[in-house]
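To the team - S-adenosylmethionine complex, inputs and output below.
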Amino acid sequence: MIPTPDLSHIQKEDFDRVYEPAEDTFLLLDALEEDQELIQLLQPRVCLEIGSGSGCVTTLLAKIVGDANAIFLTTDINEFACQTTKRTALHNEITHIEPLRTSLVEGLLPRLKNSIDILCFNPPYVVTTHEEVAGTGIEASWAGGIDGREVIDKLLPYISILLSTNGIFYLLLINENKPMEVVKIMEEAYQMKAEIFMERRAGREKQYILKIQHLKNE
Ligand SMILES: C[S@@+](CC[C@H](N)C(=O)[O-])C[C@H]1O[C@@H](n2cnc3c(N)ncnc32)[C@H](O)[C@@H]1O
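Output:
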């Protein structure tokens, strides 16, 4: 078992500016751990986490992959999150993480077309007004707009373009985001394989991990 990354370098007040890992983060970490062998078999060359926040997820992923030649890219719209991601990686002796302050995958295409082997996103998923989605500070951690899906829906068209042939996308959703509707969109609009891989109740929230991949010719 790979231990949860050490976050002792992050001060309590830092979590006023960057998302503090919570049950949703831990469900994503558990999904990666559950698929640890599969991920290692894939021998990922390029991994990308969107919305990396504290950097906890990417740091664990880098430990699972365990290959100093693999590239770990992260994006976040919040500059402080990008800095914290780098600090968390270094604090856990991971030196090959490259955080980029951008929205979703802006600036990564066409360079990374069909090259992401592992993609992760624990998005801002809380149902809010549309107006609340505009921020780049801590509010961007949760404000998801209508159905909590506004940021998520912007990313969906890029998944099939970004993933490598055997690439896997792990996406966290909650019930209000209508996970089965996302499965249907990925299958019908983008001809991808999508399934609910894990689910867990966290207080009033029902959380899911969707696993999305290219269809294989079997
Ligand atoms: C729920 S937090 C997850 C943080 C971390 N990955 C975790 O699991 O603890 C969502 C993260 O997405 C970032 N975010 C929100 N909108 C974004 C966007 N358009 N592009 C990139 N990152 C975004 C937020 O700043 C925040 O760090």
